[in-house]
Write a structure and sequence with these properties.
2 domains; alpha+beta; binds protoporphyrin IX containing FE
């Protein structure tokens, strides 16, 4: 056991600044967007396309799901490489040496292996779903597999700092799934469905049904997003002062501003355009015909509005990725206020030492807040300070050696 003196834990001034983690942020954003791109067409297939319009869209949506799954497979590989670089603090040329160690020796590596198995299952479901008869069942399996992949994110991010399977992980997971449904269907509608609604000669009554379903799915997802988002924000930030004074709080505020615009656009869609599109169906010219369509103008406006919403949601996803690489004020306070940390080191083959660390109170009882150090479980021996540990083991690993 080594005792970490107080002064080498996170110091206030350095910990309050957001680190320059651009490549890692890009990797997280890529992975989150890939997840959204898979869940979007699946949710659209399962819940939004009415029976009468399936023929027109289902094959296209399935092909797109396959492409999105390929993107998620790529992002999963990138994530592993990114985390290996982040943990080993070595360059890309060293990655082949550290990667197997990260997979074998760290909690992240073990969770990543589960993700790999889930990806194989997801691909199996996708192949089965190429047969139209199995399409909907396969879409449900694929959705379930990708939802568990979403959990692998929550199990290796800030929520995992409170321990495995703890409430923050479930809240974060529900947030991520709801986010993926909302942003995913918005992306899918604006990229694939709206541009083809007219070409495919979908009758106005079916269009109206489709748009009503979209609006309902988005509303349910949004309720989930807002409730879980507020819970997480309270958990990580804790006070108005922290929201105002920390970099984490500032990024969260930017994200909330972007979300507010997207929500306002969603509300306009639901309360202005959707009722007008539905109303057009009951007019004599609207029922079951495409010759004269009084719902055309609101549909155009809805299409434009959803297009703009897509851009704001994309920006919010990037803001969320930045947030994941910052240190939440609550965690930071624990790290700064910490008096003693205990570390146990185990030498491993290949010049690696495995370090686990816990913060203890005056009675030597563990304080849960420092579990985050487990995420940075591999370091080359030569970079650890003699007889002690480096600062990057504390909190979320923001500070450098
Ligand atoms: C009231 C609104 C919202 C609040 C208060 C909120 C707050 C949060 C918080 C505190 C986190 C945890 C970040 C961390 O681990 O440090 C988070 C994660 C996240 N949020 Fe939100 N959020 C909101 C809405 C949204 C919306 C609308 C989107 C979609 C565009 C979104 C996308 C995400 C994503 C992708 C994550 C990362 C989840 C993960 O990978 O584990 N959030 N959010």
């Amino acid at each position: 056991m080594a005792t970490i003196p107080k002064d080498i834990t996170c110091s206030g001034s350095t910990a309050r600044r957001m680190p320059a983690h651009l490549p890692y942020i890009a990797v997280s954003a890529f992975d989150i967007i890939a997840l959204v791109l898979v869940i979007g067409p699946l949710a659209t297939t399962l819940w939004i396309i009415p029976k009468e319009a399936r023929k027109a869209f289902e094959n296209r949506l399935w092909r797109f799901t396959g492409a999105a799954l390929a993107t998620l497979t790529l992002s999963s590989m990138t994530l592993l490489v990114g985390r290996t670089l982040e943990m080993s603090r070595q360059g890309l040329s060293e990655v082949a040496h550290w990667l197997p160690l990260v997979v074998r020796e760290t909690p992240f590596g073990r969770v990543w292996l589960v993700r790999l198995i889930l990806l194989v299952l997801a691909w199996a479901a996708w192949s089965i779903g190429r047969d139209l008869e199995w399409r909907r069942v396969a879409a449900s399996w694929l959705f379930a597999a990708v939802a568990v992949i979403a959990f692998t994110r929550s199990a290796t991010g800030h929520p995992a700092d409170q321990g495995s399977w703890a409430a923050p992980e479930w809240v974060d997971w529900a947030h991520l799934v709801a986010v993926s449904v909302w942003a995913g269907v918005v992306f899918t509608m604006s990229g694939m469905i709206f541009p083809r609604l007219r070409q495919e000669r979908i009758p106005p009554s079916v269009r109206a049904d489709l748009i009503t379903r979209l609006s309902s799915v988005a509303t349910v997802a949004l309720i989930g997003i807002l409730s879980t988002g507020i819970l997480s924000a309270y958990h990580y930030v804790g006070s108005w002062a922290a929201l105002r004074d920390s970099s984490y709080g500032h990024i969260l505020l930017v994200k909330l501003a972007l979300v507010a615009v997207a929500v306002a656009l969603g509300a306009a869609n639901r309360f202005l355009f959707v009722p007008r599109i539905r109303a057009a169906v009951v007019t004599p010219g609207g029922r079951g015909t495409t010759a004269y369509d009084p719902g055309e103008t609101p549909l155009k406006l809805l299409t434009q509005s959803v297009g703009i919403e897509t851009l704001f949601l994309l920006a919010a996803l990037v803001a969320a990725a930045i947030l994941l690489h910052g240190m939440p004020p609550r965690e930071m306070d624990h790290a700064i206020a910490g008096t003693t940390a205990q570390a146990s080191r185990t030498a491993r083959p290949g010049g690696v030492q495995r370090v686990s660390m816990r913060r203890i109170d005056a009675h030597q009882s563990s304080l849960r807040s420092l579990r985050s150090t487990a995420r940075y479980g591999v370091l080359p021996t030569q970079t650890a300070p003699p007889g002690g540990l480096c600062r990057s083991w504390v909190g979320s690993g923001e500070t450098s050696l």
